[in-house]
Here is the input.
Amino acid sequence: MRGLIYKDLYLVKSKVIAGSLSILFIILLMYVIYANVAKNVLFPTEMVAVITDLMIVMYIGALSYGYIIKADTKKQWGFYGMALPGSAKLIVGAKYMTVFIMYLISYIICVLNDLLIGLFFGKAVDMSLLVLMFMLFQMFLNAIEMPFAFRFGTDKAAGIRIFITIVIVLIISIYLLFGNIEWLMAEDGLVKTIIRLFGDNMDSRAISGELQRFINRLTLINYIEMAVFAHLMVLAYYISYRISCKVFRKGVLRDDN
Here is the structure.
């Protein structure tokens, strides 16, 4: 297993390094702009942390997933893999573990990024919970796609993912139209809070206070819901792995591989 993980990481090494350098340059640029121009005008420190953290997850986690799942997809490698003892569980497990490792690395970098922002701008920030929820949701989308990638190939899997994303957007839209969205549209809801954040005459201190009030309004039920959400995402990832193991052989033997 460790050798297969190393192989996957080695194959995407150059692309991951290039992406990491790109995101590092962008983050440093945002630091400079915020420190010299926008500190008291556009964004509070928390917003800088959120934007940079989400970019880290997208570049190092989500983009790395695409590189990892597309590596060594030719039939020759599949036949070699099937010859290994416990082939499907090893190869599929290595892919899933490699994707998880990249997301874990991105999460650790986000925590360090929040720490550096706090040290650099003199104010402690902690966006780890928000980043964790976003990262788990990204892994959930990846978990949906990966069995299709093993069975039908990465190109068809990407198309299926787009279709599933459209379905999810439709479900969310229907909920927003007919469901209880008081948490979203009420006076203390998310939308009104965002409007106040970017309203006129809002300086950095007022915006930070608004964000703090929103966090303080989170109840025990909200945290329980987040915990349930996190466990469901992990369970979905495991179920996806089990399905991928089942379809791995058929994927290797498919006609277009």
The mean pLDDT is 75. Residues 22 and 69 are 21 Å apart (CA to CA).
